[in-house]
Every structure is written in structure tokens, then in C-alpha cells.
Design goal:
The protein is an alpha/beta fold. The chain is about 60% helix and about 10% strand. Strand 7 (about 520), helix 19 and strand 8 form a beta-alpha-beta unit. GO terms for molecular function: ABC-type transporter activity; ATP binding; ATP hydrolysis activity; ATPase-coupled lipid transmembrane transporter activity.
Amino acid sequence: MTAPRTGRIPLVDPEALLTGGVRRARPLRSLLHLLHPHRWGMTAAVVAFVIKDSAVWVLPPVTAAIVDIVVAGGPLDRILWWALVALGVLTLNYPFNMIVVRLTSSANRTLAYTVRAGLAARLQRLSLGFHNRQSASVVQTKIVRDVENLELMLAQVFPTVVSALSTLAGAILITALNVPLFVAVFAVAIPIAASLIVYIRRRAALRNEEFRREVEQLSAQVSEMAALMPITRGHGLEDVATARVAARADSVRRAGRDLDLLNGRFGALSWISYQVLGLLCLAGSATLAVTGIAPISPGQVVLLSTYFGMLTNAIVMLMNAAPVFTRGLDAMRSIADVAEELDVEDSRGKEEVRAVFGEIRLDGVVVTYPGDDRPALDGVDLEIPPGRTVAFVGPSGSGKSTILNTVLGFVRPVSGRVLVDGVDIAGLDLRSLRRFVSIVPQETVLLAGSVRENVAYGAADVTDADVYEALAEANALDIVSGSPDGLDTLVGERGSRLSGGQRQRLAIARALLRHPRILVLDEATSALDPHSEARVTEALDRARRGRTTLIVAHRLSTVRSADLIVVVERGRVVETGTHEELVAAGGLYSRLALVQSGG
């Protein structure tokens, strides 16, 4: 599968740029920080935009001059000369417009790439605890919708602001040269307009954030509905699921309606206000000309009226862009939530792991989850020699999976140590350590691609022979042997074209392709029927030979052959031994075995 063409990407670390200056409390400064690599291009775009837009504020003086010539009955050659000036200014629009488009598009699209790539990199370094707390759909919204709002803000606000400011500067300059008295009118109108814009932005900011949060919650609920579809259909709960999403959609509707009403109310009032000011400007300048209070020619009356109309139009455009600007800043705050998240698994500067033998030791490990009254692991001591198979059993919530997550470095102990080959993993580059680890989870996650893509996921320089070897070792050759497409056989969305046992064996093949020294099996057979379980168990027995294997299982039938069985209860190791030793001891394991055997 080939990567999409992205063109030339600036040599900047997206994550470093994102985390180096993006702060929720300062969204505008954060945006300027992200645009810093494009500062010279954006400066050139501003200059080109002013030249491109110069006709807007150059044509009114030309019009005024021609009106005065007509009133005075002046010569035609002067009219022709002014017409040529106007034509020359107009011809500048096309080439400089293309310069603006090229420069702003490059900055805008590259900024979107940088933020998305930076968010993806940041999310990969955040701990599993963060991802367990955060809905996947909310994260998706940040990468897709929030970045789209940033792009929209830059695409709409930049030309509006630059056009308004250049028009304002040109109008004031030419007015000061022709009718200095009227500069005072602009001096009064501009602060009023600026105050209106600030007021609207403050009022709209809260509504925009409320609307964004409602959309995020709707996205999370839709994702939940999709995940629960088999349960919903199986229990005939379609109306319930529809009602839940509809209720959230109604909340989005009401939040969006309130936001639209607020924007519409201020938009209408501001438009009326500035039209009244424009009318007063026209009447005032005409009165000065007629009464002779100020030496204003008919052309200058047209000039002042046109400029004031342009000024009010620019201000209305700025106010119309204010909601887009507010949404963009709110998106910047949302993105900053990820950039400022401190729950990071950072391996930079730590010792890189180049080889693993597979010895594991837990030394007084205590793990406490936020909000829990008691520790998930309470002083766990355990030693696992390399190449041994150790199974963890116990009641639900006893801490079995927490032990695995602690060994893998997904969960950090508040006290105690986890050592691999005698080295505390707190000082190791965990990414390099995990290159020697493979995990087969309870819920198999497959790509919506081919068998080859799923087995070879993330592995470099893999041949078809390697894939076939992994499939054979995982007892999964039947997935491709009966298909004319072979390794190109599609597995469907989330492996929908495969049975549960086939999905699990495909996951085992993916794990074995990496040739791990440590194999982690988390409830790998719990959801399978007896026939599928037998085939998967056979594959697992073959897979764990010569490897340190950690197994979590509720079915004791899958752990009988383990070298060591560790019984966990309330975060403590209460029993250790082989199956026969623990049954003979008459403890918790013996009682669990008795219950599962139906005795």
C-alpha cells in the first residue's frame, strides 16, 4: 500500500512544534507559534495581497477625479489617462492573486499536516491510562474536525483581515491627503467597530465551546452505537439506541441553533448600524460641500462616501469572520489539551534494549489507579526465569491484567521495581524493549485489509515465506489455503469474514512473525467455542516453546501445562505452584478448579 503524495514537507518535528508552544490559555499565540516556520512566506503573502487588492482603494480616487472632470467639463484626454491608471492597477490582480494563493495554501495545508502528524505522534507517546480515559471518537474529532476548523479559519480570516486593514490604511491615507477633516470620522468609527468585534468574540466563545463539546459527545455516542450494534440487534433494542443518539443530536441542534441566533443577531444589528453611519457620512459630506463650510468637490463627496462604505463593509466582513475565528481558537484550545497532556510515556534519553533473554522479576510492586481506594497491586514479588510459561489466574478484578500491563510498562508502579534481565525497566527505552515482545489480546484487532497486511503489520523486510511460516506455526494456514487469493485474501472490516478462532490464530501469527522473546497472552481463548479453542491452544503451545510466556486466563484448562501458576487475589499473590500442587493445596485455585469442573 503506497503512501499518499504530500509534496515537499518542511524539515520540522511536528510533535516538537506542537508541544513547544501550544497552550490552551493562549490559543492565538499558539496559532502564531505553529505559523512561525511560515513567517516569511506569510509576510510575502501579505505584501502580495496588498498589491493585489490595491484596486479597491485606488479606484475611488480615480472615480472622484473623473467626476470632477465631468462636472468641470474638462478634456477627454485626462479621463483617458485616469482610465489607463485604473486599468494598470486592475491588471496587477491576477499575478499577485496567484502568488497569494500559492503562499497561503502552502502554509495552510502544511500547518494542517503538521498538527495532524504532531497529534498522532503525541497520542502514540501518551500512556494507555490517557487513552482509557479518553473516548476514541473524541480523539478522532481533534485530528479531523478541529484541524479542519483551523484550516477554515486561516482560509477565511486571513484574506478578510488583510483586505480590511489594507483598505483601512489606504482609505485613511488618501482621505488625509484630500479631506483631512474627515479623518476624524474614521477615528470615531473604527474604535466603535473594534469594540463590537471584541464584544461578539467574547459572547460567541462560550457558545462555540459548548457546541464543540456537544459534537464531541455525539461522536462518542455514535461510536458506542456502532460497537454495540450486535447486542442492539440481538436484543431488539434498535429504538432505544436510536433514541439515545437522537437525544444527543437534539442537544447538538439546540446548541448550534443558539450559536446561530447569537451570530445572526449581532450580524443584523451591526449591518444596520454601519449602514446608518454610511448614510450620515454621505449626508454630512454633501452638507459640507453645499454650504461651503469645507472646500469639498463633488468628486470628493463621492470619494468619502465610497470610502466610508468600503470601511463599513470591511468591518462587517470582520464581524462575520469573528465566529469562524472563534471556532478556530476553540479548536486550538482542544488541540492544546493533547499537547499539554502530561501523562506521557517518554523513553527519550533512556537505555536502548538490544537483546532480551526473558528473565522477569517484580520486586515489591505497588500500583494504584487514580480514584481507587485500594491498590490494584499491593506489594507483588515474583521471579520468572527465561523461557518459562507463567499463568496468572484469579477472580475478575484481582489484578492479573495489571501485572501484565506493569511488566509491559503500560502502567507505572508507585513503588517497587519491574526488572527484565536484571535491569529496571524504568531506565529502559520501552519502545526498544517491546520489539522483543508480542501480545495476543482477548479482543483481536485486525486491519480491513489482506491476510498478508495483517500478519506483517509493522514488520520490515518480510517475505511471503516468512508470512506462510508464521501462519503455519499459528495453525492458521486454513485461512489462505482454501482461498484463490492466498495471502491477498481480504479479512473484512475488523476481520468480519473470519471466524473467531481464525481471527485469534491470525493474531497469533502476527505475534510470532516478530520472533518475540516474551509472549503475552491475555485471555486469548476466552471467547472461543471448544473446537476453536482446541486449535488455538495447539497453536499457543507451539508458540510458547523457548519463549518466556505470560498467560492470563479464566479457563483453568488453558493453564494446566504452565510451568508456574500464580494465583492473584485483591492485588496480592496468594498462591504459586503447578496445577497439581495447587489442587492438592486446597486453596483458592483448588476452589476455582472445583467450580469450573462442575463439582
